Each structure stands twice: as structure tokens, then as C-alpha cells.
Amino acid sequence: MELCFLRASRSVVAKGTVALVLAGPAGISIAAAQDAQAQQSAGQQPAGQAGAAGGQAPTKQKNYKDRAEYDLYSKITQTQDPKQRLELLNTWQDKYPQSDFAHDRLLYFVRTLSQLAQTDPASRQQLIDKCKQLLKEDPKSFEASYFITLWGPAVGGASPQPELLTDIQNAAQAVISGAEENFSAAKKPQNMSDTDWANAKNQVLGLAHKDLAYVATSKKDNKTAENEYKESLTVNPNQGSVSYDYAKLLQGDASTPDDQKYPIVLFEYARAASYDGPGSLPANARPQVLSYFNKVYQQYHGGTDGADQVLAQAKTSALPPAGFTVASAGDLAKNQAQQLQQRIDADPAFKLWYGIEQQLQSQGDQFWNQMKGAEVPGTQVEGVKNFSGTVISVDPPDKPTKVVLGVTDPTKPDATLNFSEPIPADAVKVGSKIEFSGIADSYTANPYMLTFRDPSIPGVKTPEPKTPPRRGATTRRR
């Protein structure tokens, strides 16, 4: 199943954390530049301004080439529309390629393009190019690394160029290594709580680890991708798209449907489908994921039992707890086969019953023609005198003439006892276990049912069969 969640997931990060990342003293905001310009008269050549990306003071005074450059710069600081501001920045770049304010201009390019990138895909590659240029001037620019991390995968898509993958990887690693410093308590905005500041940091770290998973996946390094997706969800659990991508990666990497990774696949699809908090998949996409989860769960498990519990657990946790598992259909069949064999070995009566069922299922009428009308077990094969089963229904309840039993499974009918006269109702209560033997009267293969005529129940007075048993059978009223 292919779903595209990129735009939704990116916009959440962009709107929720960009302002926080750039809130520290290292940034030059447009508002700050406007304030600086307001302090200057129209005829002045303003002095250089502190606040370059590295936070270092300029080594020499900066001056405009002429009044035209100053006016252009002033207009840029007063332009709120990012498209118009970008046009002015390009004009500035074209007319004054060499400028004392080239670094400030580059920062304006980055900030302006970052605004446009949220709605204009064509701006994203330009933003990455400017960020790379900024990193050449200031290798520690957290801002430049962040924006490459934010938009790199969107630009690269399903077939990213090797150079872009290198840029994304370097940027993501720089974001991770610089997170402690850039989200230190000293840089926390005064109007932000400690919790919100920590959450902002975790969002950025989650994005960076997600990007490293993207790079690893593009390079077919699925093991690294798995680890990075898991780390991304560890630092920031509120990422529905990451849960979906993680599940998809694991599913594609699983060697067989019985692979041990499959329970995690199911859990992560369940997370993507059920989580509806901040950072969740779009509301109109979650039903599609839920439908797919139900499909693969049933294919893997062989039924829908337990699916609701997985969905409920995944809604509150981005990663499965230690020891989490979902039994595969193959595992269940293997366990059932083992339990069946243990029962056969321990219970001769059941061994005989099961053997009759298998013969009727495989040979049909050929075997039935030999068995019909004979008392079963009757001949006391291997010391077996009676079968035993759990009463599922009686009809009519007060004077039973028909009793339906579950022999192989106490909840599934596979034996019917028909009596020509009513028997005591208290002897065949629903849910009780009784022993019986009788004359085989009929059978159906699917669903399997073996019917007995006027059978005997030890300790209960039952009517004698109306016709004598076939050859070799013994008369029994015990």
C-alpha cells in the first residue's frame, strides 16, 4: 500500500519548531533588521551589524556600496510578503554580487526561502542550495543544517541523487550533535515552558533520525534504517508517518510471513492507524491504514482475534513493549498439532474417535459402508468402551431425544445422539461431559458430524436399538 504523508508531516515540523530553532541569539530576524534600519537616517552609511549565524562580532565595519544598495536593503527589511522579498533579494544579488552585507543577505535568502518552501516545492531546492552556501561560510550553522534536514527528503523523493543524500546525512548528524547546545536552557525563550522547549528539541531530533533512516533506505542499508526509525520514534513518539514508514520497511525486509519482525510490522501499522494526536497521519488517511492493518493481521494470524487489543495498545505507545508478539497462523497450527498429538497419545478413546474422523474425511463412503450400522466402539478396541464429549445442546430440553456433543472440541459439535424415546433431562445437561457408545447411523463430511442411533450412556437408562447391530457388534446395555 502506497500512501503519501510527506507534506503533512513536514508542515507539522515546520510550523511547530522552526521558530523555536531560530529563537536563540544566533539568528538575525527580519524584525531585528527593521529595528536597526529605523535607527539610521536616510543619508547614513550604517555600520556593520552583529548577529551573524555563528554569533561572532564582525572584524571590520561594514558599509553599503551606495545609497541605492542601502535603499534596496531597507526595502527588503520592510517587505512582509516572502515572494516579493525574494525578488528584491535576487535584485540585490544581481546588482551587488560583492557586498559587505553578503552574509546578512544569505541569511535573508535562507529565512525567506524557508517560508516559501512550506507551500512552494520549487523553493526547496533553492533553500538547500543557500543552506549549503551558508554552511561553507559557517560550518556550525544549526539553521542551515536544520533546513536541509527538514526539506532534503522532499526534494530527493524516491530516487535521491547521491550528493543530496550526503548533504542530508551530514545535516542530520549536525542537527543531532548540535541539539544539546542549541536547545540548552540558556537559549530557551522566556515565554516558553521547559516542557515545550524539551518537546521542540525532541521534534528536531526525531526529524534528524528519520532523515538518517531515509538515507539508509535509499542506500539499501535496511538494518541502519530500522535502528534510525526506532530512534526517531523513541525521541519523538508523535510521528504517525514514521510509524507507517517503519512498518513498511520491516514488512519489505521480512524474509517470510512468519518472520519474527512481523509482530512489530503489525504494531507499527496499528500505531499509524490508531494514533490521532499531534503528529498523527491525516484523518482521511488513517482509515486506509486501518483497513490494511486488518488485512495483514488476518493474513499473518489466521483470524481477527486480538487485533483490537493491538490497536488499543498501539494508540498509546509508538513502539511495542518488550516481549510483544502476535502468534502467526503457522505457529498456531504447529501448537495445535502438538496438542492434538499429545491428546492422541494420552487418550485411547480420543485416538479411536480421531482415527474414525480422518478415515471418513479421506475415504468417505468407502469407509462408511464398512462402518454403518456397527456399534462404535462396541468391540472395545484397545480397551476403549466409550467415547466422551461435552453436551452442547439437547432437544427438547425437558424430554431429550436428541443430544449434540463436542468430542474433539467442546465448543464445536461433531457427534449427535438420537434416541427413539426420551431420556432423563438431568443426565445430559448442557456443559456436562458424558460418555457414550452407539450404532453409527449417518455422517456428514463438512461440517463433520457422526450420528448415533439409540446410543448407551453409562449409568443412564436409554432405549434399546430398534434394529440389531451388524455382524461382529455386541449388544450393550450397561
Structure characterization notes:
By secondary structure, the chain is of the alpha+beta class. The protein has three domains: 6-232, no CATH class; 237-327, no CATH class; 347-456, Nucleic acid-binding proteins (OB fold (Dihydrolipoamide Acetyltransferase, E2P), Beta Barrel), CATH 2.40.50. It is 53% helix and 9% strand. The protein has helices spanning 6-21, 30-38, 67-78, 82-95, 102-117, 122-137, 142-156, 162-182, 194-218, 222-235, 240-253, 262-274, 286-301, 307-315, 329-346, 348-363, 365-371, and strands at 375-376, 387-395, 402-406, 415-418, 433-445, 448-456. The chain has a five-stranded mixed beta barrel.
Helix content: 40-55%
Strand content: 5-15%
The averaged pLDDT comes out at: 86
Shape estimate: rod-shaped
Order of helix and strand elements from N to C terminus: HHHHHHHHHHHHHHHHHEEEEEE
- Number of alpha- plus pi-helical segments: 17
Count of the separate structural domains: 3
Structural class: alpha+beta
**Strands ordered across the widest β-sheet:** 2-3-4-6-5
Low-confidence stretches: 5-21, 23-58, 471-478
Radius of gyration: 38 Å
Number of DSSP E strands: 6
How far do the termini sit from each other?
A: 65 Å
Report the biggest beta sheet as strand number plus sense, adding barrel if it closes: 5 strands, mixed, barrel
